[in-house]
Amino acid sequence: MDDGRPIFLQIAEQIENSVIDGSLPEETQVPSTNELAAFHRINPATAAKGVNQLVDDGILYKKRGIGMFVSPGAQAKLRQRRRDQFAKQYLQPLLAEAAKLGIQPSELKSMIEHYEEHR
């Protein structure tokens, strides 16, 4: 919790990661804002801001008097959003640089496959 980004965004991302990797399946209750605050030693309002962002995004929903739960379809929604971010952040610059260097898509594919085999 110290990478320079606002803490509430880091809280939201941690929950998102747990949804994506399946450790917080759909319809599962997420830790309360007080539990998150105690665990991370932060203000409960900060934890609530991160959780509320996920509610606004449709990733979590509230059951009155019970707590917050992972929304149906949240994992697929998050994976698609992350794939879109991945393409924008990594693929677009990669393809632009490959074009500058005259690397054809088939050659780029071969390069990726080669590196995948040797990692």
Kindly describe this structure.
With 119 residues, the protein is mainly alpha-helical. Helix content is 64%, strand content 7%. It contains 5 helices and 2 strands; from the N terminus they run αααββαα. It has a two-stranded antiparallel ribbon. A hairpin with a 3-residue loop joins strand 1 (60-63) and strand 2 (67-70). Helix 1 crosses helix 3 (44-56) and helix 2 (33-40) crosses helix 3. The chain is elongated and about 60 Å long. The two termini are 29 Å apart.
Reconstruct the topology from this structure:
Elements: H1 7-20, H2 33-40, H3 44-56, E1 60-63, E2 67-70, H4 74-101, H5 105-117
Antiparallel strand pairs: 1-2
Count of individual beta strands: 2
User: What is the percent of helical residues?
Assistant: 55-70%
Number of H/I helices: 5
Using only C-alpha atoms, the radius of gyration works out to 19 Å
Largest sheet: 2 strands, antiparallel
Structural class estimated from helices and strands: mainly alpha
Cα shape: elongated
Order of helices and strands: HHHEEHH
Biggest sheet: strand arrangement: 1-2
What integer is the average pLDDT?
A: 95
Task: State the low-pLDDT regions, or none.
Answer: none
Strand content: 5-15%
